Amino acid sequence: MEFRVPVIYGSVRVERRGIKAARFMVHELERRGCRPVLNDPMEYTLPLLEKQYSDYPRGSAPKILEELAEIYRNADGFCIVSGEYNHGVPAALKNLLDYFLEEYFWRPSAIVCYSGGRFGGVRAAVHLRAVLCELGMPSTPSLLAIPAVGDAFTEDGTPTDPRFIERNEQFFKEFLWYMEALKTQREKGVPY
Fold first, then answer.
1. What is Dmax (Cα atoms) for the chain?
2. Minimal CA–CA distance to 3: which of 189, 125, 186?
3. What average pLDDT does range 145-164 have in this prediction?
4. How far is CA 124 from the centre of its chain?
5. What integer is the mean pLDDT of 170-178?
6. To 10 degrees, the CA torsion angle through 187, 96, 174, 75?
7. Which residues of 153-176 are buried (b: 16+ CB within 10 A; e: fewer)?
8. Are 5 and 140 in contact (CB under 8 A)?
9. Distance of CA 126 to the CA centre of its chain
10. What is the Cα–Cα distance from 148 to 151, expressed in whole angstroms?
């Protein structure tokens, strides 16, 4: 079963290290038969949220929001790649996520968190779980935490540790399982 997966990345810093983790996720999801699409806030340059997508009359939202809404409506799951900024989620990621709501419903999310230090962004992931659940895309139980992200991948997203993929195999199996389970249930109908 082929799953459509937006990989939502959340940093707009000048020297972004986490983009390599996002590239890794795109490659790994492709390798597992998925159709990932990288959603990078550097490409969208969305202003701070003033109006959600659903607040626009049908067909009148800015073009980029219409494009994102279409991608999200067709998604089977969401891969969220988040750094840890001061124990929390990067503002660009939160802003990008907050533009939408119903487009996320009934689809799982998988959290990939990273930091430059030893904890791999897990403190931000704790906050992110609550946000994703409220948005209607509850996160899978496992996290893919990446410490020292600057050294963890080459520029194209290849892990520098040959055992990295093997150590995180359960994360991918779990995400695929949840996408299949929720897709099967969505096809039967949703609670409202």
1. 50
2. 186
3. 95
4. 13
5. 97
6. 30
7. beeebebeeeeebeebeebbeebb
8. no
9. 14
10. 6
What pLDDT, on a 0 to 100 scale, did the predictor assign at position 13?
Answer: 87
3-state DSSP call for residue 14?
coil
Q: Name the residue with tokens 């990008």.
A: 96
**Cβ–Cβ < 8 Å for 104, 133:** no
How far is CA 147 from each of CA 1, 121, 182, rounded to the nearest angstrom?
32, 7, 30
Domains of the chain: 4-188 (3.40.50.360)
Tens of pLDDT, residue by residue over 31-52, are 999 999 999 998 888 999 999 9
**E strands within the chain?**
4-9, 35-39, 78-83, 109-114, 139-146
Burial classification of residue 56, based on how many CB atoms lie within 10 Å of its CB (0-12 exposed, 13-18 middle, 19 or more buried): middle
Average per-residue pLDDT for the chain = 95
- Helix, strand, or coil here: 40? coil
What is the pLDDT averaged over residues 175-180?
A: 98
The position carrying tokens 């996520």 is 97
On the question of pLDDT at 111 being above 80, the answer is yes
Residues 6+ apart with CB under 8 A from 165: 28, 159
